[in-house]
Amino acid sequence: MSLTFCNVHFSQQPEKVVYISNTLMKSLKLSGKKNIQLRLGNDTIHAAVKSIKKPGKHLFLGSAVRRGIHIPSAGGIYIRNLQEDEVQLGPLIGVLSDGPTNTSQPFSSRTGFIKQLLREGKKKCYIFAFTPRDINWQKDTVNGYFLGDNGNFYRKTVPLPDVVYNRLPSRKAETSSSINQLRERLSRRKIPYFNWSFFNKSDIYRLLENDNTVNLYVPESHMSPTPEKIKEMLERHQFLYYKPSAGSLGKGIYRLTYLPKKGYFARYRKGSGNVLLRFSTFSSMMRMLQSRHGRTLDSYVIQQGIRLVEIDNCPIDFRFHMHKNGNNKWVVVGVGAKKAGRGSVTTHLKNGGSLLTPEQALSRTFGSKSDEVLQNAKKIAITLAEGIEFHHQHLLGEIGFDLGIDQDEKVWMFEANAKPGRSIFSHPSLRSEGKASVEHILEHCLYLSKFRRRDSE
């Protein structure tokens, strides 16, 4: 297979003829060919081929060819020869999300990020965003959202993409029968789809519990614990985190503490404030939790509390934003330190937390050793990502880790997120990492679609 980068031009010729510059003909090993199959996604068209004397790598497509395989636009794009007489343009990348219809923000709060992806992606591929309702399965086409030069969306019908990047926003939607069917249909067509779904905390702990290379970084955790297990762990660890397996953004999390001679304490978020309750007995604390949550406690996870490094008596944890790169290797693209708000159960920014660079956070505790501590944490984050990927049955290309570091420099993994938020990239010192994150997503899409960059002339 030869892969190269070319310029696609639209002509008004109605015939099914593809005009190819001599240089491009040689690159694609098409010299002497009279006909080719031209492919975009799963659409193909049979066309005559004619060479033209024009310096550089150029492809001229008439209206019949363009309409036949739904070429979305002219401009620079990769082209590769697949077999004897078949060449493919692309890749065609689809970003799957959802949101309201008939609005300039069709993907709600994700619209800005999706526009950034499409803006960067236009330089190297055909990229569009779409919702589940935009697919026509009878025709295997998508009515996608493309980004114009003016920064506004426009709609174009294209074939099903070569690869799908999943940014569906809701756990509820993602477990629906229609989305399960969508994933199955893409699998049958051998279209790579990453990231498959949100992680559940309990699933991740279960995946890693028997893997001795990574489970030493996971605090002791138990799914659906009995009251007896919670009490026993409190007596051993003094404090625990009690959290919903499918939760996010710190919602529904409790910090439970046991202080001999003082009693039991539960700290949690309510509305825009933090609540601290004291109980004289363990059973009275459990009654409060059961009255607030009932049967939903069955899907809670209990996790050993860790004494994290602190600034101003407020614990700090770290968001490690991981990506697969164009060589299918895990890399750390961005690290943000999150300082808990005073009295808060978590470090989430919406709960009063603040964002620092890892250097700012670690230098306060470890001084001259801070860079060594950070580099060690990055190595462990890559080990954790590799461990999750090894045990996970679907394609992963992005993970957000919430990691803690204790006073002894030991690294702990509290959570792994398949669709991490991007709030750390709002820090002025992490904007370049935000741009690198987008570039890694696109490079990994090129890898999955088998359009690998070798020549960008």
From TrEMBL:
Residue span(s) of domain ATP-grasp: 208-446
Transcription regulation listed as a keyword: no
Keyword Nucleotide-binding tagged: yes
Keywords from the UniProt entry: ATP-binding, Nucleotide-binding
Protein name (database record): YheC/YheD family protein
Pfam families found in the cross-reference section: ATPgrasp_YheCD
Biological source species: Paenibacillus dokdonensis
Source organism, top-level taxon: Bacteria
